[in-house]
Design a protein that fits this description.
Distance between the termini: 21 Å
Shape: globular
CATH topology: Nucleotidyltransferase, domain 5
Number of strands: 5
CATH architecture: 2-Layer Sandwich
Structural class: alpha/beta
Largest sheet: 5 strands, mixed
Order of helices and strands: HEEEHEHEHH
Strand order of the largest sheet: 3-2-1-4-5
Number of domains: 1
Oligomer: single chain
CATH class: Alpha Beta
CATH superfamily: YqgF/RNase H-like domain
Radius of gyration: 14 Å
Strand content: 15-25%
């Protein structure tokens, strides 16, 4: 795992990034454009085995010319690391062993809440919002990292 500053040094122009929101049951994914200016919701995966997740990620990475991975890191509001943080870091380290692109953890505090509030402004009914919350959270995470990288 690398820091966001090292991640920035490794990025080149015209490459896409993949954002992940690793939940306990579902994994939200988002993809940036080649210019790394906007993140777009991609899909939601149902969490299963580690091997299946890695295979699915490899396929998405290859199909979309992904050159970097931003994983939401659930830090507590007081800045401490909890059970979720340790779980995400463990999964991220496992992904890093199998996927050879730069991987960075990004502070995702309030990303799910923000994604849900944002989607509520889009006049979608509650069922649709809940169904898309994971990929919207991944989009919020990736957009935050992209904005940081561009500034």
């Amino acid at each position: 795992m690398i820091t966001i500053e090292d991640f920035k040094k490794k990025q080149t122009n015209k490459v896409r990034l993949l954002g992940l929101d690793l939940g306990s049951k579902r994994i939200g994914l988002s993809i940036s454009d080649e210019n790394q200016t906007i993140a777009t919701p991609h899909k939601t995966l149902i969490k299963s085995t580690s091997d299946k997740l890695i295979d699915e990620l490899k396929a998405i990475i290859n199909e979309n010319n992904i050159k970097g991975l931003i994983i939401g890191y659930p830090i507590n509001m007081d800045g401490s690391l909890g059970k979720s943080s340790h779980s995400v870091k463990s999964i991220a380290l496992n992904i890093e062993k199998s996927i050879n692109i730069p991987i960075c953890l990004w502070d995702e505090r309030l990303s799910t809440v923000a994604a849900f509030k944002l989607s509520s402004n889009l006049e979608a009914n509650i069922t649709k919002r809940v169904k898309k919350i994971d990929e919207n959270a991944a989009t919020f995470i990736l957009q935050g990292a992209i904005d940081y990288l561009n500034n």
